[in-house]
Design a protein that fits this description.
Length: 598
């Protein structure tokens, strides 16, 4: 697959940009056009043979065939024409098969490459970009828009070329026969071309609106399917159906406007065809009656007029396909023009100890206010540190900084003394085990999900990780144990089960840094106690950062950081903070009901 095109390539017409992006397929494109040319030439020849046959019947030994082949017998001349016709049809059929095969395979390959390029590009974009954009809108580009391009490349390009080549070949036959008839027969073509350009301009913005409404529907349906339990819980089925109905109505109206414009095209072309055909029929007939035109040539021109003008009726359909495809290509290229803000550095640490530091960090979301305000936080390698505080204090933002889902507006975040902006992704994220508060499981088995971060892990290693995450017991009770299919997003599992699988997934990776974001919030007290015992073993000698609202999960941490309004309010061990009687002691008292020391 070719690399992304340059800025110059992206500033031109969508088809020009595609030509620049996929240089490796240019030979196949040339071959496809060559086969299409042979097919069209062979397609025009039978009309010439019909004229030759009529000339044989009318003129006998004086026919063009007799002079060309040196055969006087009408029967022999017709036999020769039949043989030539058979060869032409065989060549046309062969070229038609090969052209269709080449165009379709080319379309499939470009579709495949563009989907991979677009998906790979999307994976490289910042989390902030994903969070600010509906998932369905991105899906519409990766699926529907790319499929729309494939449909155009499959048939549309060839159809446009066939029409243009048809005009050229038939025009050559007319020009060799009669300049006057050529001019009169071709008079409708400028009208058709101008009309096509006018329709194209009218259709362009209509199909852009169609693509936009498709993205809206895709985003709405995708979001609703993901939130089906919430819809049912709040008996909002009718309300959501109405929202989908309104979005679908917008799509229907947008399509209706485009259809009204495109449907008027063919009837207008028919009128132009009528003019050209009638002119050839009458004037050519008068020439034949006056002896100025051979009967055989007259019949050829009548057939050729039909051959010249009638295919132009398909321009409406092809333009329709073209405009849809160009609207889609523009959306695809716009997506590919998005650039990540957080890009990896080029430093690879030979070994990661796990020392973490936030120095004077000021950070926030998008153009919003600061969430972290000159935050200083140091976590020595191998220690367990906890981050607690009220909602909105900045706990999750700290984790975003450590994972480098975003960069600070000011200050620096370091791993083993190196700014994260200088590190390769493999050195940073490749050495971190992360358990998110909102656990995401992939389609596949329990074992597949545990081994997601270490795909080469053995079954024994997977089982050991599950045991350390207190997941072994419920996994063994599942129908197929570790081979049980969990379904998309793990919807067949409870929240606590998903959290334990996510914890096993992080443990199996054997990371230098383990980050737990409310990793036990969905489990019961007994399971939490089991996980805590396992974590006591897993975290030995491993840097661990724990974010928790439930303080019982962090009381044994080497150090607890209490955040308030994006700053460190206090820090220390559990006993030190409780004895201090500050905000942590207040939180502890609320959760345990214990009296707070004076």
């Amino acid at each position: 697959m070719s690399a992304a095109g340059s800025t110059e390539e992206r500033s031109g017409h969508p088809l020009t940009q595609l030509w620049g992006r996929y240089r490796q397929y240019r030979r196949r494109v040339v071959l496809a056009f060559l086969l299409s040319t042979i097919r069209k030439i062979m397609d025009v020849v039978p009309e010439l043979l019909i004229g030759a046959a009529i000339d044989v019947v009318v003129r006998g030994a004086d026919s063009f065939v007799a002079g060309a082949l040196g055969v006087e017998s009408r029967q022999e001349q017709l036999i020769w024409l039949a043989v030539i016709n058979a060869v032409v049809w065989i060549l046309e059929s062969t070229a038609d098969y090969l052209a269709a095969l080449t165009w379709r395979n080319l379309a499939q390959q470009v579709e495949h490459d563009m989907r991979l390029e677009a998906y790979g590009h999307v994976q490289g974009l910042d989390m902030a970009w994903h969070e600010s954009r509906p998932t369905g809108s991105t899906l519409a580009v990766l699926n529907d828009d790319i499929n729309q391009l494939e449909r155009f490349l499959d048939t549309g390009v060839d159809k446009l070329y066939q029409v243009a080549l048809n005009v050229l070949l038939v025009g050559a036959v007319f020009a060799l026969t009669s300049v006057t008839l050529t001019v009169l027969a071709f008079l409708p073509i400028p009208v058709i071309v101008v009309g096509s350009m006018w329709f194209q301009r009218r259709l362009q913005h209509r199909y852009a609106r169609v693509r936009a409404t498709v993205a809206t529907i895709s985003g709405l349906v995708s979001a609703n399917l993901g939130g089906m339990s919430t819809i049912k819980t709040f008996t909002a089925e009718s309300r959501e159906l109405e929202r989908v109905r309104a979005a679908s109505e917008d799509y229907k109206q947008a399509n209706a406007e485009a259809i009204r414009a495109s449907s008027a095209f063919v009837p207008l072309i028919r009128m132009a065809i009528l003019t050209g055909f009638t002119t050839t029929l009458l004037l050519g007939g008068f020439y034949a009656l006056d002896g100025r035109l051979e009967v055989g040539l007259y019949s050829v021109l009548v057939f050729m007029t039909q051959r010249l003008l009638w295919p132009l009726t398909s321009i409406g359909e092809v333009l329709d396909l073209y405009q849809r495809a160009m609207a889609s290509v523009r959306r695809i290229l716009h997506l590919l023009d998005e650039r990540p803000v957080t890009v990896p550095g080029d430093v690879a640490l030979p070994a990661v100890r796990g020392e973490l530091e936030l120095a004077g960090v000021r950070a926030g979301y998008g153009d919003g206010p600061d969430v972290l305000r000159q935050l200083d936080l140091h976590i020595p390698a191998g220690e367990v540190h906890a981050i607690v505080g009220p909602t909105g204090a900045g706990k999750s933002t700290v984790l975003r900084m450590l994972l480098r889902f975003a960069d600070p507006r000011e200050g620096a975040v370091r791993l083993d003394g190196v700014d994260l902006r200088e590190l390769q992704w493999e050195t940073l994220r490749g050495r971190i085990g992360y358990v998110a508060q909102d656990v995401f499981l992939f389609e596949g088995s329990v074992a597949d999900n545990i081994a997601y971060g270490a795909p080469d892990a053995s079954r024994d290693q997977i089982v050991r990780a599950a045991q350390q995450a207190a997941a072994e017991e419920f996994i063994q009770q599942m129908p197929d144990g570790y081979d049980t299919h969990v379904g998309e997003r793990g919807v067949t599992l409870s929240g606590g089960q998903r959290q334990r699988l996510a914890l096993a997934r992080a443990i199996l990776r054997d990371p230098a840094v383990l980050i737990l974001d409310e990793a036990t919030s969905a489990v019961d007290n007994e399971t939490e106690a089991a996980i805590q015992r396992s974590l006591a073993e897993v975290t030995v000698g491993r840097t661990t950062v724990v974010v928790a609202h439930r303080l019982s999960t962090v009381r044994h941490a080497d150090r607890i950081w209490v955040l308030e309004a994006g700053r460190v309010a206090e820090a220390g061990t559990h006993d030190e903070l409780v004895a201090r009687g500050g905000s942590y002691a207040d939180l502890w008292a609320v959760q345990t009901g214990l009296a707070v020391p004076d």
